[in-house]
Fold these 3 entries.
Entry 1:
Amino acid sequence: MTVNDAQFEYDLFVIGAGSGGVRAARIAAGHGAKVAVAEEFRIGGTCVIRGCVPKKLLVYAAQFSDDLAHAGDYGWTIAGATFDWPTLRDAVARDVDRINLAYTSTLNTNQVAQYLDRAEVTGPNSVRMKSTGQTVTAKTILVATGAWPIMPEFDGTEHCITSNEVFGLPTLPRRVVVAGAGYIALEFAGIFNALGSAVTVVNRSDAILRSYDIDLRDRLLTLTRARGIAYRFHATLDRVEKCADGSLLVHLGDGGEPVPADVVLVAAGRRANTAGLGLEQAGIALGHRGEVPVDGDGRTACPSIYAVGDVTDRVQLTPVAIREGHAFADAQYAGKKTAVSYDAIPSAVFSQPPLAAVGLTEAEARRQFAAIKVFTSDFRPMKNIFSQRVERGFYKLVVDGETDRVLGIHMIGPDAPEILQAAAIAVKAGLTKADFDATVALHPSMAEELVLMR
Ligand code: FAD
């Protein structure tokens, strides 16, 4: 418990009420600190307002398309099934409103003051509200402003959208061009493809999902092509032209045919949200990607300013931002130091089908270990057995040949993210392949493949 320094209005001022900021604010307040938070858009941040949560709801909607298509194999007759985008969009928006309220009420319950405004740093202990001009002082400032979609420079960017706008589209686009091949790009490519849009993914190189194991990437490419997603590799967006009928024509740098589209979704990565934040006023120099450089405790070059989450550009995932925010608050206001571990962080791509992974890829393990063993399972998920669908699942275990420790698990197939979360515990705990072998299979399941690889 800290005592508010009389010279400052707050013990802690958090800029950004997203995953990291809200967690830090409420935990710090719970430890007795006097806390305020500023939010320029909506309380909850990217994850709950225009990221993970609304995206996952769209993924669920997309999965109905598969289930409906194959329901007949199981004896169901589903006549006249149609899809209505506004119904889905509005249901998602209502849920976002609900979570936004829940986050706001959590802050209220913990007596965290809220400034619904843009805050900019004016010194080591002060911030200024953009619309009111009010200056607020605090003993400590936590920067938790997240990241922002990158829009590369080309003619016609004004006709394109990013993931920020995708949830509010007035109608389901008939044709979508997705620029980029990271997880956000491929998730939306899968969503629109499943909902009935014609999707073309455009990417600078021919590598998708760079940080994932090559076998998963290859499998996803094959399966999504089979589902009808077109890929234009080694191509950049040159120009997006608005036609007289309101549709778009996407000209690519590969010299090939332009692609007609109704929506162009640019998902070319996310950059730390620090533009105009004023950190230089407190002597903080930004990194070359615009990120706030911090030490292991989240401390910046200015002793009274800390940063957590995407703005530090370490691992841009919600659970990581939350852990960093929590660890910061515990360390500062309860004297409880917890190091955030960046090892074995599980992650998923909610594509169709989804993939998930934890630990080292085969290539990374080969670089870091003298001898590795690789076990794979290439199987037909039981759910597909009746149908003509040939989509196969693929699991891979990467094992240290010397110690038998499982270094990485890589999975693509139905429910892979749900299965991987539990398996990630084994990797984090340093379990061995012998431990996997000693575990009796849970039959019949897909997850049993994890303990049956010999
Ligand atoms: P944010 O949650 O982005 O919060 C930052 C907040 O600060 C925002 O609300 C912003 O409005 C506010 N802000 C910025 N500047 C100011 C200012 N000057 N004054 C006041 N307020 C300010 N992660 C996962 O783990 N799983 C997923 O499936 C997943 N899917 C995603 C899908 C999409 C489409 C996107 C875009 C992201 C996804 N992410 C996912 C990433 C995840 O959303 C982020 O890692 C997470 O939100 C980071 O939390 P944060 O607290 O650092 O920042």
Entry 2:
Amino acid sequence: MTSILVLNGPNLNLLGTRQPEIYGHTTLADVEEMCRVHGAKRGVDVVCKQSNHEGELVTWIHQARGVHDGIVFNAGAYTHTSVALMDAIKGTDAKVVELHISNVHAREAFRHHSYISPVAVGVMAGFGTRGYTLAIDALLGHLEG
Ligand code: DQA
């Protein structure tokens, strides 16, 4: 069975209460449940993890090799700073869809650069938390070729 890891980085545990005008009112638990239900409908296994720690995210990307077929990854602010996450994706040849709830390109200039995009299959941004299920579908489409 195809397995997708939905990985969330720093501050995404605050979803629902964090800047709701930007990120909405849906909690991380809601998002994760939505992803699992969507995966079940598509006949794929969806595993969800969140960490505020860059090194832990690096380790989980390493551990995903041979376990998950692809990763939907919202790296949060590490998107804009982390060479380590970029190297982890590149180094494990992980199939990653980069995801942002907000349209990062319509926000501050420092959010326009991503270390993840050059090593990602594609990018989903600006569709709110609905983007997670869209990203799962996009990743499955890519994996199916
Ligand atoms: C984010 C956008 C990032 O710039 C920000 O640091 C986040 C969330 C998003 O989902 O829109 O933490 O990745």
Entry 3:
Amino acid sequence: MKLVVCKNYDEMSDKAARIIKAGMILKNDIVLGLATGSTPVGVYKKLIEANKEGKISFKNVRTVNLDEYVGISYNHDQSYHKFMDDNLFDYVDIDKKNTHVPDGRATDLNRACKEYDEMIESYGSIDIQVLGIGQNGHIGFNEPQSTFSLGTHIVDLTENTREANKRFFNNIDEVPTKAITMGTKHIMQAKVIVLVANGKNKARA
Ligand code: F6R
């Protein structure tokens, strides 16, 4: 593991984006694992800039996102599908058929988890996985105590997580009670992991 301390958010985003850009140049059909949340937004901005300048292309890139709320419509402001469109996919030359976000609206959620794992495995493994981290150390919706062998699974959101996320919804009742998340199994199988963390509140994690 290499720990890179940066002087600010912009430098952190730039350094992380450089690793991803290099990967994309070396392998044009790279498999990128992507995260939502506030931290990677700066990285995505740098990738959008590089794509607009013609330095990188997403034409053959495949993406696999970490997580999604269960039962939320894809055009809801808090949907991670919408987040990815708004912060990356709608601004680069990616083929949306090659982008994957877990299906939180599936009628058979267990089947959706199994199919998501099969899709990841059909790609071999993730080449570069982008991660944020929660203040308590959560990755995706995997809480620190979750086991390393888990594939994609359904998580009951704790009251703490729902409370923390309620600021993004009109009220606590609107905050979903479950989420679908990639497990640490496929995350840890990624060839490279770029974890971005910003701010004192993340230092302990
Ligand atoms: C989102 C995700 C979450 C976030 C974490 C940190 O896909 O995986 O685990 O990375 O909650 O969120 P921010 O970056 O908003 O502090």
